[in-house]
Each structure stands twice: as structure tokens, then as C-alpha cells.
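Teaching assistant here, posting this on the class forum so everyone can see the example we discussed in section. The complex has two components, and the goal was to see what a joint structure prediction looks like when all of them are supplied at once.
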Amino acid sequence: MGFRETVRVALRAIRRNKVRSALTMLGVIIGVASVIAMIALGSGARAAIDEQIQSQGTALIYLSSGSMGGPGRAHQGSGSVQTLTTEDANAIAREIPTIGAWTPGVRGRAQLIAGNANWNTQVEGGNEDYLRVRNWTLAEGENFTARDVLVAEKVCLLGATVAKTLFPDQDPVGQVIRLKNMPFRVLGVLGEKGQGQWGQDQDDFLVAPWTTIQKKLLGITYLHQVSYTARTSELVEPTAVAITRLMRSRHRISNPENDDFTVRTVEEMAATRVQMAETMTGLLMSVASVSLLVGGIGIMNIMLVSVTERTREIGVRLAVGAKASDILRQFLAEAVALSLVGGLAGILLGVSVSELITKSLGWPVLITSASIAVAFAFSAAVGVFFGWYPARKAANLDPIDALRYE
Amino acid sequence: MPEPLLRFVDLKKSYPLGDMTVHALRGVSLDIEAGAFFAIVGASGSGKSTLMNILGLLDRPTSGSYYLEGQDVSGFDRDRRAELRNRKIGFVFQNFSLLPRTTALENVELPLLYNGRGRTPRQRHEQALKLLRAVGLGERADHKPNQLSGGQQQRVAIARALVNEPELILADEPTGNLDSRTSIEIMEILQRLNRDDGITIILITHEHDIAEYATRVVTVRDGRVLSDVPVTSRRDAARELAALPAEQTE
């Protein structure tokens, strides 16, 4: 029997039992839909992380005080010890030639007041290179200067969210806001970055000269963090190693377990997050595959029933000259058609579910043509795999027994 | 003397049943010439069905030889037998054995799907329709078996048996489920095919009056040929039909 005939006979057999065929396909539909949705979530997370790296600047190296510590030591969170000094930061910038722009960092939370509006937000201190190092743009106004940093001027730049909250219908530039009863002049507003990887608002913060924040707002003498950029992205790793070595010699640390600082690159942090996202996707994918497997077993079950029901039909076909391979192909085609039609419906459902996830939960999803191709191929494979046994059974029927079957 | 169409030489068939061995055929030798109309008669349990299964290449003998057009086919495997069935033999069964929920036309086309002669769907349709017309069902080509009477279903089955232009039609109790008038109609078609187209017909039946439509009657009992005699007063279905009062239905 030719290919076209085989397909036609298979499709007709499926149409003959519409409800049964639909129920049989349901397993494959759900399986394929979940595989599609899971791949979409996984690639979405990955794409979001990539974008995040781009927005932070890829050549960035963070030096923070404190460390994860070794076994038997109290774990101090990053930024919790007071041993990272301005001298450390300057020495590193001076002695390591591969470092480009950099900025010291201090941070805290504070209540902002502007007129009768007020807002609690993150306050970051940096130098005049902060925007360049951390990949921020100015939407309006201007950056603070090296002189502002030197004399600890009370000026600041607002993140887009803060600007919108405090000055809903006014130009913030030139206005004065109060932090802990100190007046700060707003020099500019930053461009928007939107949501971060964990859903946090990256624009909900304020930047001011680190000297001002450190001395006047926080009243401390140390730094929480220093952000360095390597001159090129290839230099990130050697620069991070050089920073670590220099910090150990400055702090007289011989055993890395005793580090009182942490050096991390953005790439490293991103890699960790990619790995987490992939683990999660893999887990969900395995659940999705199980439902595809169950769908396949459903197909095998219904095909076995169908072979028994149509024993006489098989007998007639054999009597008029069908070969075993004709019967095998006919039933295999039916199983594959069931799983492929189910697979197509599953792809449609999976795509809509992914859209729904983005719309209702705001998670990023990315549907690739590769994932659709994989799902399609997978459902065809399910049809062949689970259709084989029933088709084999049909093909091996004895024509005399099959003709006599009641 | 020309080569017979079918030649059986000492055919034996036995199969295990529980811990016994049933000897269904105990040595059958028979020649059937091309163009003959043979009836094989026997009671149930006589070995008649086994003989017909082997004759129709649905089964293989345990020993002995089966020559079809001079070629020993007794050792042929499943696929080669399927091919021969498709090309050389048309089957007509007692229970019609049409595919349910499938139109008469598609039922007739079925054997054409399994031979590699590479006909287009249109050619297959035309061939099937031509044969449906020949058995008087041209108007009912798109009827499904459950919309047809028993006689009509059997005529569809005959059209299906003819579609590959076989040398041989094997009719296994073709009138077993039909009333006497319809039985005569079916026999009329078979006699016509034999007479006009020279198709060899082998009729398997347990009814002696049906066997009288044939030219020879072979009686089988206990797995052996009991007698092989020519029919002395052959029945003519066409004449019998003409003599019957006309019927309005159908």
C-alpha cells in the first residue's frame, strides 16, 4: 500500500472514533504542551539573565567585604565586616594596570522626603564614574563631578522610580529632597532599566557621592563594596585573580579560608543563575516527559484495543493480499497519526500556556522554533515507539484465525 | 494434456490440539483444470475447510505438494502467498467479509491497494466501478454494507474477488447466509463468470443441490477424497431465475 493510501486509511480510522481518539491524544497533548511551556520558561529565564548581564556591564568585578567563609567559621554575609578600606580600593586601582573605570561603594536605606511626598529607598554611594562602571545612563540633568565627591557635596541622582514617586508632575532636576533631615540637590534622573532577574525594581534607588553617604548619612569609615571594570572582557578573570592576590597580601591572609573579602565577576554570578534556571527547567522537563510517556502508554493501550476490535478487518485485508508489512505500516501510521495530531494540538496549547504565564505571572518566556521541532519529533517518536507493539501484533495475526474471529 | 491450473499431490495437514494431533487431511490428490467449475462437498469436520484454506493459500500443507500453474507453492512464505492470493485468487465468503463502515466501491478497491501495479486512485475507482456495474450494483457504489441486503453484500464481495482479474474464484459457502432466490442469483453470477470469462470456480459447500450448479463434484470425508464425479444433470441458474415469478423488491 502506498504512502498516501496508508495516511488516508490511518486518518479515517482516527476520525471514525472521534471521542476515543481525542481522549487518547489528551495524554500526548498535555505532555507536549508542558514540554513546550517548560522549554519556553527555561529559554526565557536564560534570555533575561543574558540581558541582565548586558545591562550591568560584562567586564564588571565586585570586591565586597566579608566572605562566605570556610567550615568551622561563622559565615559573614558580604559587606558585613569593616575591613575594606578606601586605601585598599585605591591601592588596587593604582597597582593593577588592567583595571579601567572603578568606583567605591557604600549603601544603606533611607527615608526620602520631597514636599509632602516621602519614599523609603536604597541609597548608593559612588564616585563620578559610578554611572559608567554600572552601565547607567542619564535621562536628564547631569552627573556629579569629582569635585562633588572630594568635598562630599550633598547632591544626588534619582532612579526613575524614585523620580516618578517623589515628583509625579514636576521636573525633579534642581529640586531639593531631604535625607535624614539633610537637604540634597537633585542633579539628574537615571534612564530606566526595569525589572531585574528576581523581579526587583532596579530603578528604585538613589546615587550620591560616596563620601557624602559614608560620612554624613551612614557615619562609617569603611567601604561595603568596590566595583572595578577590566579594560576588556578577556581581562576579567586575570584581573579578578590579581585583585584577590593583592587583597590577601594587604590584609596578610595566607589561608584563603580566612578571606575577609569576596571577589565576584558578573559572569560568574550569571553562570550561577543560569545553572539554577537550568536545574529548575530540567526538573520541570522531567515531569513533562513523564506525562508524555503516560500519553504514549495511552496510545499503546487504545491501539491494542483497536487491533482486537478489527481482527476481522485484518483477516479480510490479509485474505485479499495484504502483506504483514502492509498491516504493520497501517497500524503504525495510525499510532503515529494519533501522536502527531496530539503533538500539534499540544504545541498550540503549550504556546498559549506560555503566553498566559507571561501575561499573568510576568515571567519571561521564549518560544523557539527549535523547541517546537523537538516537541514535534518527540511526539512522532512516541507514536512509533508505543505503536510498534500493537502494530506487530496485528501484522502477525494468522489470516484464517483473523477471518474466523467473532 | 495441458497443465492443470491446480494440482494437489498427496496433501496432508495435521495440527496439534491439546495433547492430540488432529489429522485434517490424510492425503488428497486432485487436479483442477483451468476453466472448470468445481464443487467440493463435505460435512463439517470432513477436512473441507482445511482443504479450502490450503487451496486459497491461506495455509500451508504439512506435507505434499501444491502446484499452481505448474509452480510448487506449498513452501511459499507468508508474503509470497499474500502476493499470489492478491493476483490469482478471488475470495467469496459465507459471511461476505466486507469492511464495515466502508463504501461498496472502497471495498471492491481493497485488493488493488495491495498490489504494486501502480494504478492511480482514479484508475482504481474506474476498475472497481466497472465490476460493481457488472454485478448490477453500479447505483449503490457509495452504500455501506449495513445499507445493503445480504444478496447485495455478496455481490459486492464477488466484485471485490474479480477486481484483480484472477484465474480462480474460491467461494466458501457463498449462499450459506442467503435465501433460496438470492442463492440462485449468486450462482447465476458465478456460472456466468465461468462460462463467459473462463474463470475457474471452486465452490465449497455442504448443500448437494448447490453443488449441482458445478460441472464436477468432489466429495471429501475424513480428510480424503471420497468421490470425484462429473455432474450429470447440471442446474442452470439463469433459466431457473427466468422461471421464478418476478419480484418487486431489490
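For the discussion questions: The helical segments of chain B are 48-55, 78-88, 104-113, 121-134, 150-162, 180-197, 208-211, 237-243. Chain B has eight helices and ten strands. Think about how each of these relates to the inputs above.
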